[in-house]
Write a structure and sequence with these properties.
Length: 203
């Protein structure tokens, strides 16, 4: 795990005030850690994701491909007026589109709110209201196809678009469980989640 600004302390806590913060003075770029660091290291040709094709065949997506799609999709999300820290509900089936949108949202500095497809429309709407989502993406959203495909030539002409590092305590995503009452989401901080993911991978 690479930090753009290394943290000076692991934890800053004040139990009297009910406050605890992990790696709070550090900053890191989550999408870069997931994708572009491998591209820059010359490993962009390696598979980053395996997907099932229409005929049941297993197809690989390289770090190069996934990085380019996340960068392009993230740029288009921001072109719709979204800003860093805005919540985006992503209500899509498990698959390649979901992965691309999650990485795109992260790269754009947004807070992703992925939901299981089993949630009814009424609960999705309630969650979007609870988290203050600026955008809700479902399979029926009219701009979904353009977000995922876009115009590769135009994206290439616009040149590089560096990811802005996040503070470790900035929210990365929010997960909601099915609830009969008011929706309650669990916020995952950027630094804590990536440290745990990195440690789990190494183990």
């Amino acid at each position: 795990l690479c930090w753009r600004v290394p943290f000076s302390r692991c934890v800053d806590e004040d139990f009297a005030k009910g406050r605890i913060a992990w790696f709070d003075d550090g900053r890191l770029a989550p999408a870069w850690n997931a994708l572009e660091r491998w591209v820059e290291a010359g490993e962009g040709h390696r598979p980053a994701l395996y997907v099932m094709g229409e005929k049941g065949t297993i197809e690989a997506r390289s770090y190069d491909e996934l990085s380019a799609r996340a960068r392009s999709c993230g740029r288009r999300l921001l072109e719709r007026g979204l800003e860093a820290g805005d919540r985006v509900v992503i209500d899509l089936p498990d698959g390649e589109a979901l992965v691309v949108l999650l990485l795109a949202a992260v790269r754009a500095g947004l807070v992703a709110v992925p939901l299981p497809r089993a949630f009814p429309d009424s609960l999705v709407a309630a969650i979007a209201e609870d988290c203050g989502a600026k955008l809700t993406l479902t399979p029926l959203h009219p701009d979904l196809g353009e977000l995922l495909t876009g115009n590769p030539d135009r994206d290439q002409d616009q040149g590089a678009w560096p990811e802005v590092p996040r503070a470790a305590e900035d929210p990365l995503f929010i997960l909601y469980a099915r609830s009969a009452g008011r929706p309650r989401g669990a916020v995952f901080a950027t630094g804590g989640f990536l440290v745990q993911a990195s440690a789990t991978y190494r183990a």
